């Protein structure tokens, strides 16, 4: 299997708090990964590092066989330039907990503008694609609505469409249903289920929706205190976890655990 | 003391000339305040620590000293250093620089009030620094800036009588010159007040309308 993401001995602290401790992990091309664990365990930080929203303190991150935070020069590895980061970001897209749609643009323009600005796509083509994506997330009738006129679930579906429009090889979903009212969670998760089944895009999702993680993921990573405690097939993790810490955590969500 | 329409008739022509100077000084001064304020805001937000700190303190020093003193400095002190400014030019520069310290705060607050998530979304979509500013941050930051910037124009308009101290014959000074030579104060000073009201009240009303128009629309 071909690796698309690799963390090599990565550490990261915020002040005195170490959120990642000598983390080694990899993700294969096309894999759907669910990152679970108590809050503050470093799951979200992994996504933010991949999106270049956070730097790393030590170690290496590799995407597509290229260093993310470093670049090779004649005299060895040096810190990545903004230009290198810009190139590397083409591989990655992210959906946020708080949606972060552009409030001054309507739904379809939120999806059209990044294509035009970043990829240089013709506006007409970008609009056609945006319409298709809005249909995919079930919002073709809301194209002309502004974010403040949409529900949280609808905003999040537009945000997913916006990220997909740039066709990243890796999609990151950071607790995308945590800010939603309970009755709106399913409409967003359903979109993710369709995406997971239909595309060979590599997907990493940080989630507290255990049932969703179980059916969405090829592999589940359980994090605690900045390290991977246990990883494996969802059926295995959710029914017969080996580590006591995993079991204790999952007990809060699943009653019939071994 | 009785109101004399004769005095009104005599003072009115020079006061109308003064009114034009007042309006010009306010508009040119405001334009300067808007432009200098923008540069000052960019300096204050600089990532280079020394630039940010220096511009912050320069701005504080200007803001925390009286405009009148600054006008004296521009008009009466600068000539000692070989810089001669006409009263009007010294006046609008003084107004412009003084109020740029206020407008720079409007710009800075406007930009800093754009949520952090908007910067992060721009980065996640791979916008470059220019695209982020031009297409994401400024379109959200500018509308809320417009009402306070308009209010500073009204404030500057009201402060223009200070320019009389450096011999600018604006509305107040025009009346004052007449009063001092004719010993008539009631009519000229009443007219000064009236002229200010005639302009400020509709302007304040217009600024209020702007505030309603640009009330932020919150997502969610």
Give short descriptive properties of this protein.
heterodimer; A: 258 residues; alpha/beta; Rossmann fold; six-stranded mixed β-sheet; four-stranded antiparallel β-sheet; 9 helices; 28% strand; B: 220 residues; mainly alpha; MetI-like fold; elongated
Write structural notes for this entry.
The complex is a heterodimer of chains A (258) and B (220). Chain A has 258 residues and is of the alpha/beta class. Chain A has a single domain (10-54, 92-251), classed as P-loop containing nucleotide triphosphate hydrolases (Rossmann fold), CATH 3.40.50. Chain A is 37% helix and 28% strand. Chain A contains nine helices and twelve strands. Chain A has helices spanning 43-50, 82-89, 107-119, 123-136, 152-165, 182-198, 210-216, 234-239, 244-251; strands at residues 3-14, 17-28, 32-36, 58-63, 66-67, 70-73, 76-79, 92-95, 170-174, 202-206, 219-224, 227-232. Chain A has a six-stranded mixed β-sheet, with helices on both faces. A four-stranded antiparallel β-sheet of chain A has the order 2-1-4-5, covered by helices on one side. Chain A has a two-stranded antiparallel ribbon with strand order 6-7. In chain A, strand 6 and strand 7 (76-79) form a beta hairpin. In chain A, helix 3 (107-119) crosses helix 4, helix 3 packs parallel to helix 5 and helix 5 (152-165) runs parallel beside helix 6. The mean pLDDT of chain A is 92. Chain B has 220 residues and is an all-alpha fold. Chain B is built from eight helices and no strands. Chain B has helices at residues 5-44, 49-63, 67-77, 87-112, 116-124, 129-159, 171-182, 186-213. Chain A binds chain B through residues 51-53, 86, 89-90, 92-94, 96, 98-104, 113-114, 117-118, 146-148, 152, 155, 162-163, 166, and chain B through 115, 117-118, 120-121, 123-128, 131, 135-136, 139-140, 217-220.
